[in-house]
Design goal:
It is a single chain. The chain is an all-alpha fold. The two termini are 20 Å apart. It has one domain. The longest helix is centred in the middle third of the chain and has 29 residues. It is elongated, with a radius of gyration of 15 Å. Helix content is 83%, strand content 0%.
């Protein structure tokens, strides 16, 4: 689960970087960048958080 979260965070960063070479359109780059931000946030705030809470130090 932690690996999936890290991969999603990295993929969310790589998508906008790859979009720089795909198109010259500012609107298309903005859409792809927002998609990358959404993927990163889901990976960090949902997947990694769920994996952390599963083995939290305050849980028995």
């Amino acid at each position: 689960m932690k690996l999936l979260g890290l991969v999603m965070a990295l993929l969310g960063w790589l998508i906008p970087v790859a979009a720089l070479t795909m198109t010259q359109s500012t609107a298309a780059r903005m859409v792809v960048t927002l998609l990358g931000i959404a993927i990163s946030l889901v990976g960090i705030l949902v997947v990694l958080n769920k994996a952390h809470l599963k083995k939290a130090i305050w849980k028995p």
